[in-house]
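Duplicate of earlier report; MFS transporter input re-posted below.
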Amino acid sequence: MNPTDGGPTGIADLAPLHRSKEQRAWFFYDWANSAFATTIAGVLFAPYLISVAEQAACGFVGDDDRRCRESLELLGLAISPGSLPSYVITLSTVLGALLYPLIGAIADRTANKPGMLAGFAWTGALAAAMLFFLVGDNWLFGSLVFIVANLSFGASTVINDSILPLISEESERDRVSSIGWAYGYAGGGLLLAVNFAVVTFNDTLGLSTATAVRLCMLSGAIWWAAWTIIPWRGIRPRDPAAVEQVAGGLLARSFGQLWATLKDLRNYPMALTFLVAYLFFNDGIQTVIASAAIFGEKELGFATGTVLGAYLLVQFVAVFGAVGFGRLAGRLGAKRVILTGLAIWMVIVTVALWIPEESLVPFLLLAVAIGIVLGGTQALARSYFSLFIPRGKEGEYFSLYHAMDRGTSWLGTLTFGLVYQFSGSYRPAVFALIAFFALGALLLLRVDTERGIREAGNKRPPVI
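Output:
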């Protein structure tokens, strides 16, 4: 129709269609990296490393005396084998606190965020694959390659989350973030189901338990690397926006960009308040995730296969929990729903203090409760924080976000490890995490959502 006749004058807006296509590709990175988060970091690595460390502790004693020492020795320090995974995670997250902000600054100065995402993912997957060679009593080798894998996992997540504001409008964030988390739990759960069968029926397959565990960790690395191809190919590069004019090469300019952002953060007090709140409540969440397998095997006395089954249950319940929390946020606002989730987390760690040994039904009910709140609280925290980020600063702000996530969660794991070291029980170690959820909730109550959105110059969603 001719425009002069009063008919349509423009071309159809294809932006929503393009965003939807990129969002579907973006979902698959959660699908990919959850294999590491669940099969390796969440379930198998920590108990397996403890077993290797216990064997190493026995190795300190001569052949004529089979008694084992109670601790390992490293650089003059005595390390309890039961606390070793907590200390390994602590070290990797402290290193992350130093590296992630710089990585975020570099990401905001480059157009190829999908390439950076894939690079860190494949580096982490290669390191995770090296765990297949963790045999005998070589606990130090296993600790070092896990640190590389965990650091790469966190770095790739910084880049992945910084892409969220680029491929979605403010009103879409809770939905898109929640679906991403749901993909993650579905993908991680699917592989975990296969690995559950391998570990449970290892005798039938002609495998020792140790060999089955090592093969399952290898499968997690391969899964992570293979599925990363989809977001790498499906998300288009974008030119950087609002970067600071700093002289020097990429590294020097990135340090300058980071310093400018840290100084500018005081102009966004709601973003800063949320980051501090997130530091506390996410430390609690991450420590529960990292320590759940240890608690199930070493404290409650369940076999590795049973713990795998419970973790599998968590994964599939979390799919519905993430989607359900996202829909609830659409009606009540993300902040209210996150606070509700934190209250449930406090109930969970309290119940863990009293759950009887080898009581399967209470253990599975606890797993269901964790699944309901796990994906929901994390997905909404990601989308809620994105509302407070100024345009062009996504990588840097999400690097600070993950400095509070993977980078400073050493507070939780250190607390867990120390309480166990002094009490000899994982029950008070789990219960001690209630302080992190309570402090996080109190700080979150101080966040004025509407003010934070206004300070960042973003659009106000219909429901906050």
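The chain has one domain: 23-456.

Merging into the original ticket.
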